[in-house]
Amino acid sequence: QVQLVESGGGLVQPGGSLRLSCAASGSRFSINAMGWYRQAPGKQRELVAAITSGGTTNYADSVKGRFTISSDNAKNTVYLQMNSLKPEDTAVYYCNAVQIRVVLGRLDYWGQGTQVTVSS
Questions:
Q1: Cα 17–2–11 angle (5° rounding)?
Q2: Which of 39, 49, 52, 61 is deepest in the core (most CB within 10 A)?
Q3: Over the chain (120 residues), what is each successive 10-residue block's mean pLDDT?
Q4: Running DSSP on this structure, what letter comes out for residue 14?
Q5: Cα–Cα distances in Å, from 69 out to 47, 63, 93, 105, 120?
């Protein structure tokens, strides 16, 4: 079982920056990928950015060029640097970790979520 602890959300003005962090712990199995999803009121949860253990990244089109995902594999921690924030980035951001197990297949773990509000 993987536990995910998020930090770094808050209120920021349009054009500002925030950095989210997510630390994973609790499993003896390797984590294959980590990422960030977000869910705005009345909308479905969507992928924001993800990074594999090998360093391959994937971004939603809406955040390309503004957000950067990075990781510290030794610490099982993933970061999301968010720059040039827009009001439409307002959402609850959830950390996600993925394990690919031989018998169980893909396992997804979720953090509790952290609120990001972009408003003047």
A1: 20
A2: 49
A3: 93 97 88 95 96 94 97 91 97 96 90 96
A4: T
A5: 12, 11, 13, 25, 25
